[in-house]
């Protein structure tokens, strides 16, 4: 525990984050007992009139973003808690799509510090309590919580949601969640609540998820059974037993995530208008999710960091290269990944499509060395000590008609966004 310097409300957010990062003896310490005790002291277990919790392996942030846009279009005052951030910590809390001033955060950090007493909290637990404090102080109609890791023992699970959703179930964080989809599904289903809707957007739903829903007496609402969707030309259709939405605009996010969001809203306590849904879908986008930057070469940023996300990225790339790329265009890829990820599984999926590789070490403790990344590639690669160096190498080597993909982690695309002076979602 770091007692050498305890910040105060007038300290900077950077000082608070440095303090909190060193407060607990483990970076990740799953469990709800400690964080719930502090939450009860702060009286933040009911941060809004309605709460939606979104878990899953990939697509959580995108699903939360679609929910946020549509709910705001329908007249709700909405708060979203998501992680990790890209450029600055304040991205983790959005209210009406905007980040809050630093002073709001430092005041909230100070309140949590005073309330915790001798209870030790991890970085994520502390930040979750800060988010809940900020939400409660703004008197919101709806709060959307993105699960950090897993579900059952994640800090966000101290709050009882009115609707829970699982976007998909695949392999990631196996050290904490288990080595098979059965175990991972059981952990993610821990966000389900008694007599509340539990939306699942994975068509191959593990038996463990069904079992948890029964044990908790949650109302399971799986894709292809309770609801479904399908493209129709330049539009798409979402359908349940009770409602059909036709002529929907195609969003600038994965369609499965948009469909999952519509399923959540279908089982929300209040009916959402079709007009709000259409407007929300048109405006929904999220930084770092197949984000195309009009440069020469064209730059694509994607936070894909596991095989499931890499498969989606490959499908998008293949379609784009087929329909929009100039003849003779080469694909250059800058990659940086954490060493605890399935590096081989992720790179294998993209290896045939990429023409030139640039491997970088991330500027954080868990970053895999560039040599490790390159060892899983069939082609030779440029090795760089950091993402910025790899990015500069790729930009110098690429021709104007080429495409430059940056992927592998939030920590990979953040330096590139900074180099391009790009703002992240919520930075308005």
UniProtKB/TrEMBL annotation:
<dbReference type="GO" id="GO:0004326">
    <property type="term" value="F:tetrahydrofolylpolyglutamate synthase activity"/>
</dbReference>
<dbReference type="InterPro" id="IPR013221">
    <property type="entry name" value="Mur_ligase_cen"/>
</dbReference>
<dbReference type="GO" id="GO:0046872">
    <property type="term" value="F:metal ion binding"/>
</dbReference>
<keyword id="KW-0289">Folate biosynthesis</keyword>
<dbReference type="InterPro" id="IPR018109">
    <property type="entry name" value="Folylpolyglutamate_synth_CS"/>
</dbReference>
<feature type="domain" description="Mur ligase central">
    <location>
        <begin position="54"/>
        <end position="212"/>
    </location>
</feature>
<feature type="domain" description="Mur ligase C-terminal">
    <location>
        <begin position="288"/>
        <end position="410"/>
    </location>
</feature>
<comment type="pathway">
    <text>Cofactor biosynthesis; tetrahydrofolate biosynthesis; 7,8-dihydrofolate from 2-amino-4-hydroxy-6-hydroxymethyl-7,8-dihydropteridine diphosphate and 4-aminobenzoate: step 2/2.</text>
</comment>
<dbReference type="GO" id="GO:0046654">
    <property type="term" value="P:tetrahydrofolate biosynthetic process"/>
</dbReference>
<comment type="similarity">
    <text>Belongs to the folylpolyglutamate synthase family.</text>
</comment>
<keyword id="KW-0436">Ligase</keyword>
<dbReference type="Pfam" id="PF02875">
    <property type="entry name" value="Mur_ligase_C"/>
</dbReference>
<keyword id="KW-0067">ATP-binding</keyword>
<comment type="pathway">
    <text>Cofactor biosynthesis; tetrahydrofolylpolyglutamate biosynthesis.</text>
</comment>
<keyword id="KW-0479">Metal-binding</keyword>
<dbReference type="InterPro" id="IPR001645">
    <property type="entry name" value="Folylpolyglutamate_synth"/>
</dbReference>
<dbReference type="GO" id="GO:0046656">
    <property type="term" value="P:folic acid biosynthetic process"/>
</dbReference>
<dbReference type="GO" id="GO:0005524">
    <property type="term" value="F:ATP binding"/>
</dbReference>
<protein>
    <recommendedName>
        <fullName>Dihydrofolate synthase/folylpolyglutamate synthase</fullName>
    </recommendedName>
</protein>
<dbReference type="InterPro" id="IPR036615">
    <property type="entry name" value="Mur_ligase_C_dom_sf"/>
</dbReference>
<dbReference type="InterPro" id="IPR004101">
    <property type="entry name" value="Mur_ligase_C"/>
</dbReference>
<dbReference type="InterPro" id="IPR036565">
    <property type="entry name" value="Mur-like_cat_sf"/>
</dbReference>
<keyword id="KW-0460">Magnesium</keyword>
<keyword id="KW-0547">Nucleotide-binding</keyword>
<comment type="subunit">
    <text>Monomer.</text>
</comment>
<dbReference type="GO" id="GO:0005737">
    <property type="term" value="C:cytoplasm"/>
</dbReference>
<comment type="function">
    <text>Functions in two distinct reactions of the de novo folate biosynthetic pathway. Catalyzes the addition of a glutamate residue to dihydropteroate (7,8-dihydropteroate or H2Pte) to form dihydrofolate (7,8-dihydrofolate monoglutamate or H2Pte-Glu). Also catalyzes successive additions of L-glutamate to tetrahydrofolate or 10-formyltetrahydrofolate or 5,10-methylenetetrahydrofolate, leading to folylpolyglutamate derivatives.</text>
</comment>
<dbReference type="Pfam" id="PF08245">
    <property type="entry name" value="Mur_ligase_M"/>
</dbReference>
<dbReference type="GO" id="GO:0008841">
    <property type="term" value="F:dihydrofolate synthase activity"/>
</dbReference>
């Amino acid at each position: 525990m770091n007692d050498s310097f305890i910040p105060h409300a007038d300290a900077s957010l950077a000082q608070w984050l440095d303090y909190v990062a060193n407060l607990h003896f483990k970076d990740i310490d799953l469990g709800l007992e400690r964080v719930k005790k502090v939450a009860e002291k702060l009286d933040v277990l009911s941060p809004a009139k309605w709460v939606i919790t979104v878990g899953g392996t990939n697509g959580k942030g995108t699903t939360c973003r679609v929910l946020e846009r549509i709910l705001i279009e329908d007249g709700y005052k909405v708060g979203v808690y998501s992680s990790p951030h890209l450029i600055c910590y304040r991205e983790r809390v959005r209210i009406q799509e905007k980040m809050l001033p630093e002073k709001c955060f430092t005041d909230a950090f100070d309140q949590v510090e005073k309330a915790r007493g001798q209870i030790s909290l991890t970085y994520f637990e502390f930040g979750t309590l800060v988010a809940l404090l900020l939400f409660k102080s703004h008197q919101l109609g709806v709060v959307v919580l993105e699960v950090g890791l897993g579900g059952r023992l994640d800090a966000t699970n101290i709050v009882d949601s009115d609707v829970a959703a699982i976007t998909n179930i695949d392999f990631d964080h196996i050290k904490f969640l288990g080595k098979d989809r059965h175990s991972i599904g059981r952990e993610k289903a821990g966000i389900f609540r008694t007599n509340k809707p539990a939306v699942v957007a994975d068509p191959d739903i593990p038996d463990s998820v069904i079992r948890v829903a029964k044990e908790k007496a949650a109302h399971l609402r799986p894709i292809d059974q309770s609801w479904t969707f399908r493209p129709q030309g330049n539009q798409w259709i979402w359908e349940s037993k009770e409602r059909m939405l036709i002529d929907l605009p195609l969003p600038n996010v994965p369609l499965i995530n948009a469909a999952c969001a519509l399923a959540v809203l279908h089982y929300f306590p209040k009916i959402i208008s079709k007009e709000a849904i259409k407007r929300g879908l048109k405006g929904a986008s999220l930084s770092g999710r197949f984000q195309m930057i009009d440069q020469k070469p064209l730059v694509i940023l994607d936070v894909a960091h596991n095989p499931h996300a890499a498969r989606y990225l490959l499908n998008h790339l293949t379609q784009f290269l087929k329909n929009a790329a100039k003849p003779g265009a080469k694909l250059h890829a800058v990659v940086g990944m954490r060493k605890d990820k399935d590096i081989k599984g992720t790179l294998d999926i993209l290896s045939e499509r990429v023409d030139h590789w640039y491997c970088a070490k991330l500027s954080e403790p868990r970053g895999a060395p560039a040599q490790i990344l390159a060892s899983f590639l069939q082609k030779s690669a440029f090795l760089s000590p950091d993402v910025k160096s790899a990015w500069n190498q790729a930009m110098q080597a690429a021709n104007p008609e080429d495409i430059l993909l940056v992927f592998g982690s939030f920590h990979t695309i953040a330096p590139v966004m900074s180099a391009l002076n790009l703002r992240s979602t919520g930075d308005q």
